[in-house]
């Protein structure tokens, strides 16, 4: 990447390019706080440094999602405004902003009801965003959130759902199983638990949530991970036939309190895969581990460079979503 980043976020643009937003660099969360946004073109295989307008306010730990051709950035942490640098403290944000790709500019939108960093933002359908969990740092005492907020793009308003997550979670993995269900995986403090969180819409009562469903635990508890949906081969089948919708969990770390301090943090390279049709974790190695362990990652899914076809194959037609890549 043109810029080293941790705690950043990523989103897919309508033209297939990937946008990497904010975070912090090797100087840390204060001096290294970033507002810049780089663009990755998966077809050209090239980065465009500062390829999009910078955020209105530098931040890390924010959530991000694309909806209706726009990119929404939600919450996160930033330094207090209008304070001398030596006296400025980190604060958790309610602020949300929208990126307009055609105009290459950011505009504000309605703030969250609850300040959140480490929240995961997922689009459900064509008009709703969900902000899942997160952490509100209250005068130095971190309060992990069990709540989920919904944003309706037509009403431009966030509302807190009455039903809560089974566990308060921050920096969890979250992805949409379908238009009304989220798979929520892990999160601080190194949970191995997983749940399905279902959202039910009602025209006369706004949005309401149904009871969550328990899913088998991860083999490794993790936080700082991300999750995304990929089309993958069914068990015992191979590429390029990819007819099974799966959730992949990428990166993260585990903190073990019962071991010596220098051994407590372990970054993870394994990529667990959840089969949404079977409702269980796959035991094969359909997705290989990351080349190196990492945490505080950003993940984005889009079409990759088309694969070269063999000259001996004249009737091969790839299924929709055959060529996928994660970033």
UniProtKB/TrEMBL annotation:
It comes from the Eukaryota. The keyword Membrane does not apply. SUPFAM superfamilies: Kelch motif. Coiled coil: none annotated. It holds the Pfam family Kelch_1. The keyword Glycoprotein does not apply. InterPro entries: Gal_Oxidase_central_sf, Kelch-typ_b-propeller, Kelch_1. Keywords: Kelch repeat, Repeat. PANTHER family: KELCH PROTEIN (PTHR24412), RING FINGER DOMAIN AND KELCH REPEAT-CONTAINING PROTEIN DDB_G0271372 (PTHR24412:SF489). This is Enc1 protein.
């Amino acid at each position: 990447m043109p810029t080293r980043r941790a705690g950043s976020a990523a989103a897919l643009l309508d033209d297939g390019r990937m946008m990497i937003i904010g975070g912090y660099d090797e100087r840390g969360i204060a001096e290294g706080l970033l507002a810049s946004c780089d663009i990755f073109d998966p077809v050209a295989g090239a980065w465009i440094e500062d390829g999009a307008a910078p955020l209105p306010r530098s931040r890390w730990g924010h959530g991000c999602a694309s909806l209706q051709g726009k990119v929404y950035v939600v919450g996160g942490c930033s330094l207090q405004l209008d304070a001398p640098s030596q006296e400025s403290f980190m604060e958790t944000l309610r602020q949300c902003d929208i990126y307009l790709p055609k105009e290459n500019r950011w505009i504000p939108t309605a703030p969250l009801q609850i300040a959140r960093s480490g929240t995961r933002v997922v689009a459900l359908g064509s008009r709703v965003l969900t902000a899942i969990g997160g952490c509100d740092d209250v005068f130095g005492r971190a309060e992990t959130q069990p709540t989920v907020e919904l944003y309706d793009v037509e009403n431009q308003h966030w509302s807190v759902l009455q039903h809560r997550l089974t566990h308060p979670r921050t920096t969890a993995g979250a992805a949409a199983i379908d238009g009304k269900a989220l798979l929520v995986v892990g999160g601080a403090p190194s949970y191995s638990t997983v749940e399905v969180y279902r959202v039910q819409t009602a025209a006369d009562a706004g949005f309401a949530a149904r009871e969550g469903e328990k899913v088998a635990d991860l083999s490794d508890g993790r936080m700082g991970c991300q999750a995304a949906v990929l089309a993958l081969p069914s068990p015992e089948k191979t590429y390029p036939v990819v007819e099974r919708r799966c959730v992949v969990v990428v990166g993260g770390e585990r903190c073990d309190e019962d071991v010596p301090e220098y051994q407590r943090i372990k970054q993870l390279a394994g990529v667990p895969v959840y089969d949404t049709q079977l409702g269980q974790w796959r035991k094969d190695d359909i997705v290989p581990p990351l080349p190196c362990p990492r945490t505080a990652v950003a993940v984005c899914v889009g079409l990759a460079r088309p694969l070269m076809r063999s000259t001996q194959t004249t009737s091969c037609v790839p299924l929709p979503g055959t060529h996928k890549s994660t970033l």
